[in-house]
C-alpha cells in the first residue's frame, strides 16, 4: 500500500475496482504498483529534463546573440592601473631635459627627433615578435615557436598534421610564406602537390593518412636574407588558418676563452680602469692589486697631460688625446681585454682583503648573469631598478627606483638589479655589445645601464668589497665638474637620443 499511496487519486480508484472485479493477488498488485510508480517518476523526470534542456538551449541562443562587450564587468583598479598607466608624468623633482632650451630650439630639435624616432620604430617593428593568437577547436597540429633557418638554407617543418573526424572525398591543405619558398623532400603515393618551390604550396589527397604522411616531408627554403626577422608561414585547411613563425638568423658563433689546465684567475679576469690627472691614485691602485693578485693583467686608458709612464709587467698603458673623455677611455680599455671577464674599477679604488675576485668569478661561471658588482668603500649595497616609461609627443620618461627583482639562485647575497656600482665584473663580450658612448666625456654611469636594458643581466652582491681613497687636485676638479655648457649639451643630447623629456629618480 505504500506504493499506491504515492499515486494520484484516480489511479487508486481504478485499482480498487480492478481488485474487486478480478480478484488480483496481493503480490501481483504490488508489482503493478511498482511499475506504475516508476513510470510516473520517469514521466516526471522527462518533463523536468525537457524543460531544463529547452531552458539551456534558450540561454545558449541568447548568449550567442549577446556580444562579450555587452557583459558588465567590475574593474579591479589596483590591477587595471598596471595595464594602462597613460603617458608618463615628470615629477616636480625630475631632471628636465628641456628646461634650458629656448622654445624655437626645442621645436626644431623635437621635429628632427620625431623623424628619426619613426625610422627607429620602423626598424624595430620589423625585428619584433608579432602577437600570434591561437583559436580554439583547430584540427591542425603545427610548431608555434622554435623554428630557425639560416639565410639561404632549408629546414624541415616538424609536427604537421590534420585531425579531421569527418569523412571527405578530398582533403586539401595550403601553405604560404613571405621570405622563402616551400617544397617537399619526398613524394607519398596518392598525394598531389602543386606550387613546389614557390611561396604557395598546395597538397591534396583522398586519404587523410596519406596526406599527413606527406606533411612529414614539408620543407621551407629561405630566399630572402631578412636577418633576424620572422617569416610568418601560413598553414590552411578548410576555414582554419594558423601561423608558423620561422626565425631567419645565423647560428650563434661561439666565443670561447681557454681558462688553461690550472683554471688560473689570471686567464679569466683583466682589471680595467680609466685615469685622468690622478697618477698618484692610479699608482696606489696598481700597488694594491699586486698585493693580492701579483700577475693579473691591468689595462689603463689615460688621457692626461703631461703623461707619466705606467707601463710595467702585465700593466698595459694606453695613451689617448688629452681630455678625450670618460666613456671614450672605457671603450679603449675594454677593447684591449683578452679574457672572458673584465673587472671595472675607478682609478682611486684600492684592493683590500675583502676584494675577492674569485667570488665574482664563481657567480658568472655558475649563474645566468652578465654583470656582478660589490660594495665600494663604506657605501651600502646599491639596489637600483631602471625603466623607460612611455610618454607623449614630448617624449618618454627615464625612471630610476630603489628595488630588486629578487636574489640569484644559489647566491642569496646577490640581488637582481638593472644598475650596479663602478666596481663590477662583467662578461667581456656582453659589455662590448652595449659599449660606452664617447659623447659622455665628463661623467656618466647610469647611461650605460639604460642602454643595456634588455641586453645585460646584472646583480649586486654584498660578499665582495673594494676600498675607495678619494683624492683629487685642482686641475682634475676643473675638468671633472661639468659646467653649464656641458650640462646644456647633455640635456639636448639625451632628449634627442633617448626620446625622453625627463629623468625621474629616487633620492638615493
From TrEMBL:
Alphabetized Pfam families for the sequence: Glycos_transf_2
Transmembrane portions of the chain: 32-49
Ranges of residues in domain Glycosyltransferase 2-like: 270-428
Protein name: B4GALNT2 protein
Gene3D superfamilies: Spore Coat Polysaccharide Biosynthesis Protein SpsA, Chain A (3.90.550.10)
Domain of life: Eukaryota
Cited CDD domains: Glyco_tranf_GTA_type (cd00761)
Keyword Transport in record: no
UniProt keyword list: Membrane, Transmembrane, Transmembrane helix
